[in-house]
Structure formats: structure tokens, C-alpha cells
């Protein structure tokens, strides 16, 4: 399965159960094809903290890796510290702009240092508002912008009771 280079630099292993023993082969494959890997899908592969920590140094060294999907696995908050520390190093994950950690065992939110480190790597997206900034801009919008004449409004909206 892992013998030819990934088409278009995208390796999709989602849905294939991976064990700690599989990490050695996966690391070797990723190192061999490091110059072309830009996307790695490891969603729903039953990836554990131990297996991910074996994989982390190899992932961090991939020069073109932009997207990393780790959703739907058995990862816990314990790996977030290692991943965050790795993201803080400018030499690690030099091209990454997107990491999916949804639907894991107990990762319900991401630490601020993780988000800040990821945001620094996305200069084009770096100007996007955070949730807090977006909420503040919504609060400063004038309320009368929906329609000029509220009496003529019949747009199907239900007024509060």
C-alpha cells in the first residue's frame, strides 16, 4: 500500500486502523516522499497518543505539509502539549496551515498557544478575526440595517414572545 509516491502529494489513510507498529513504516514512507507530501489524512485510523508521538517528529519535518487531518482518533489532551511545543518552533511544520483534531477522545478545545502558533504560520489568514473580535464587530453594527421600514416587513421571521 505504501510503495508508490502519493498522487498530487496527498496521502489519505483515513479509515485504515493504524497501530504503533505501523508508525515505523509510515514514518519511513513519509521521510522518503517528504519533498512532495502536502496533505495527510489520518482521520478515523484509531491513532493513539503513543502512535502519534512516534509520528510527530516526522510530521514536523515535512517541508510542504499544509493540511493534517487527525480527526476521529483516540488522541487525548496529553498530545496537545507536544504538538503545541512543536508548532512554536519555526523550523517545525514550516508550511502547515490547517490541523483537524475534531472527534478525538477528550480534545474539546485547543489551547491558546496552539492557536496562536498556527495563526502565525498563516500570514494570509492572519488577519481573519478571532471569535472574540468577530463578536465585538457584530456588537458595534447599527441595528436598523435589516430594513428601512419595519412595518412593511413580511420576511417569515418570528418575533420574540
Determine and state the CATH class.
Alpha Beta
Distance between the termini: 60 Å
- Strand fraction equals 5-15%
Tally of strands: 4
Write the element-wise H/E pattern from the N-terminal end onward.
EHEHEHEHH
Mean pLDDT across the residues is 82
Q: What is the global morphology?
A: globular
Q: The CATH topology, please?
A: Leucine-rich repeat, LRR (right-handed beta-alpha superhelix)
Low-pLDDT runs of 5+ residues are 133-138, 144-161
Strand neighbour order, sheet with most strands: 1-2-3-4
CATH architecture label: Alpha-Beta Horseshoe
| Residues in helix, % | 25-40%
Largest β-sheet summary: 4 strands, parallel
Number of domains: 1
Per CATH, the superfamily is Ribonuclease Inhibitor
Could you characterize the architecture of this molecule?
The protein is α/β, with parallel strands linked by helices. The chain has a four-stranded parallel beta sheet with strand order 1-2-3-4, with no helix packed on it. The relative contact order is 0.11. This is Leucine rich repeat containing 75A.
Topology:
Elements: E1 10-12, H1 20-32, E2 39-41, H2 49-60, E3 67-69, H3 78-88, E4 98-100, H4 112-120, H5 131-139
Protein name: Leucine rich repeat containing 75A
InterPro entries: LRR_dom_sf (IPR032675)
Region (Disordered): 131-161
